[in-house]
Amino acid sequence: MAAAVDEVRDGLMEDWNILENVFKLLQREDTFCADPQQWDKHKIVPFLQPDKLKELINLKVRETEKCTLAEIEALCQQVIHYSVKTSHGRFHNQLFGQLDPFGLAGAVITEAMNGSSYTYEIAPVFSLIETEIISTICKLAGYKEGDGIFAPGGSTSNMYGIVLARYKIAPEVKTSGMFGMQPLVLFTSDQSHYSFMKAANWLGLGSDNCVSVKTNRLGQMQMDDLEAKILEAKARGGQPFFVNCTAGTTVLGAFDDINGAADVAERHGLWLHVDACLGGASLLSHKNRSLIGGLERANSFAWNPHKTLGAPMQCSLFLTRESGRLLERCNSTEAHYLFQQDKFYDVSYDTGNKSVQCGRKIDAFKFWLMLKARGYGKYGLLVDHAIEMSRLLEDKLRQRSDRFRLVLQKHEYSNVCFWFIPKVMRVSSKEETPEWWERLYTVAPKIKEQMTHNGTLMIGYSPLKAHDLGNFFRMVMTCFPILKSEELDFILDEIERLGENIVI
Q1: To 10 degrees, what angle do helices 443-454 and 485-499 make?
Q2: Where are the alpha helices (DSSP H) in 400-442?
Q3: Cα–Cα distance between 255 and 219 in angstroms, integer?
Q4: Among the residues of 248-401, which ranges form H helices?
Q5: Alpha-carbon distance 299 to 320, whole Å?
Q6: Is there a contact between 194 and 185 (Cβ–Cβ < 8 Å)?
Q7: What is the pLDDT of residue 337?
Q8: What is the DSSP-derived secondary structure letter of residue 189?
Q9: In whole angstroms, what is the distance from residue 73 CA to residue 100 CA?
Q10: What distance in Å separates the CA atoms of residue 374 and residue 214, rounded to the nearest whole number?
């Protein structure tokens, strides 16, 4: 045993040389494929089925294992090669895409520093940076006195809003639980993110008390139905306490009427939260800021800069306009071994009491470095460009109306949803029977399979069950890559090439 420990200790400084090898791998042009000149030369992913991939890469982990630095480098190269290149300019599969290089630089530094964002003592510069970012975004949102925290993803950010709302209406829940209470009821649209249903489960509210509100044809929450659902909940003995507005729904990119929801929430004394995980980037916009109008009236909101803006995963904020250290009072457990009050510095910069986590990744720095490099005004221009490209794509789809069909004639954000109609299905509108539509719903998954195997393009598809619509393509524009008009033509041409003669 002692000899084995000595072996590790004696070879440790040599082991650090692996970083030089890894950085060389990251500098290869086929690792990120961010250069437009490389998009035709490299696949987004050389897709293999799981069994085949397990044959090619030695995934087994054993009690006794010893790989040389060269073998470790080879394994890293395999992992990079067979992974999806999300910075490839033709990856449009998710709500995020190509990385901002300044964000990646920040992520590399924070990983190397291996700190944690719970106390100023362990993360002095990073604590100040997180405080600055939260202060800046609160001002942009119109919060005179705001607070916030970086969270591990939008689902957790949304859950922060629910927990804070519950604490404000029933602070005793923190210590005595929810025993004997009226059921607490929350409301969110039928096109909102599934995280609200999950939060109702995790927080003991019960998924039946996460009430779905109808949306209109554009995907926006209907305020008359919200009002009716609140009254119904009260009539059956529930206690409404929380309303969520979505600013940029996952599929259509729809924005709920925040001012309308604020009127309803104020009338009934409810907490108003805005899930702006996708559409929060409109805060920075010069032309499209009105999309998120009324945000200053919300009690809280969530935003993911890793969507649209190009911050590395994960980068998610929860912000609240509530003052009086409500976030800290809600989440603090007075862990004296970590958050001592007699420290030698200003303990107000110890953010751990506000967080549901203990150890917390330093996500603020990569976003801060992006903003320092370009200024948030430049990102506002990039957001506007992404939205302009989406409207241009709609125009191009209308020009090919014999082969493509828009789900909405005009979307609100950078999402564009559409169907492709292959040659075998091109008929007169009179022949578009329910059976024809059912066949059309099978087209997008089949083309997606061809895309993935060809490695030339990745675009997601989705149904919209709330409106009884089957599968269609969902193209989402992001700040990076910064697309030109001709790239939109390539996307449509490639969908046609892959789908024209599919068997359905």
Answers
A1: 110
A2: 434-440
A3: 8
A4: 258-268, 326-331, 364-374, 376-399
A5: 6
A6: no
A7: 59
A8: E
A9: 25
A10: 40
Residue 104's identity, in one-letter code, is: L
The residues pairing with 417 across neighbouring beta strands, listed in sequence order, are: 474
The alpha-carbon radius of gyration of the chain (Å, integer) is 25
| Relative orientation angle of helices 101-113 and 364-374, to the nearest 10 degrees | 140
Helices (H), 114-153: 124-141
Q: Which of 81-95, 114-128, 298-312 has the lowest mean pLDDT?
A: 114-128
Confidence at 332, pLDDT banded by 50, 70, 90:
confident
Distance CA 140, CA 144 (A): 10
Q: Name the nearest CA neighbour of 133 among 284, 317, 290, 393.
A: 317
Among residues 450, 166, 202, 110, the alpha carbon closest in space to that of 330 is found at 166
| Burial (Cβ within 10 Å: 0-12, 13-18, ≥19) of residue 79 | exposed
243 sits in which H/E element = strand 239-246
Contacts of 246 (CB under 8 A, 6+ apart): 188, 189, 191, 192, 193, 221, 254, 255, 256, 274, 275, 276, 279
Q: Where are the beta strands (DSSP E) in 18-146?
A: 91-92
Q: Which amino acid is at 173?
A: V
Nearest to 157 by CA among 319, 331, 265: 319
Nearest to 470 by CA among 488, 494, 449, 444: 444
Q: Residue 345 pLDDT > 80, yes or no?
A: no
Residue 334 clears pLDDT 80, i.e. is over it: no
Alpha-carbon span 378 to 442, nearest angstrom = 41
User: CA dist 416 to 188, 278, 460, 471, Å?
Assistant: 23, 14, 11, 13
| pTM score | 0.95
In this predicted structure, the answer to whether residue 316 has a pLDDT above a threshold of 80 is yes
